[in-house]
Amino acid sequence: VMEFDPEDPRAYLEMAGIHRQAGRLEEASQSANRALEREKTPDGYVLLARIYLAQGKTEEAAAALDEGLRLDPSNAAAARLRDEMNALATSR
């Protein structure tokens, strides 16, 4: 049994990922935002961007990705997701 520390941003990111996989996107975005309130990390912003994309919120997803890349311009996950978003945008 894992103990939940309400101040640990990693716990919120884990919950966000679980909610996202289960299709509970509103709960996922709330958990991701709580994690980012505690610690702003590139991976947190990438996860939030993925959640926003699943919700059809492309502008919010792009803003989250921009913030993740601002924190770590060499973040591979953020760069890949940005490329995927650009490919989708140009194919429309």
Please tell me about this protein's structure.
This protein has about 90 residues and is mostly helical. Helix content is about 75%, strand content about 0%. The protein is globular, with a radius of gyration of 13 Å. The model has no long low-confidence stretch (mean pLDDT about 95).
Count of beta strands: 0
The first-level CATH class name: Mainly Alpha
Summed up, the helix count is 5
Q: How many strands, which pairing sense, and closed or not: the largest β-sheet?
A: none
Characterize the overall form. Answer: globular
Q: Supply the CATH superfamily name.
A: Tetratricopeptide repeat domain
The name of the CATH architecture is Alpha Horseshoe
Order of helices and strands: HHHHH
Q: What do we call the CATH topology?
A: Serine Threonine Protein Phosphatase 5, Tetratricopeptide repeat
**Overall helicity:** over 70%
The tally of domains stands at: 1
Mean pLDDT: 93
Structural class: mainly alpha
What is the terminal separation in angstroms? 46 Å
Query: Unreliable runs, pLDDT <50, ≥5 residues?
Result: none
- Rg: 13 Å
Strand content: under 5%
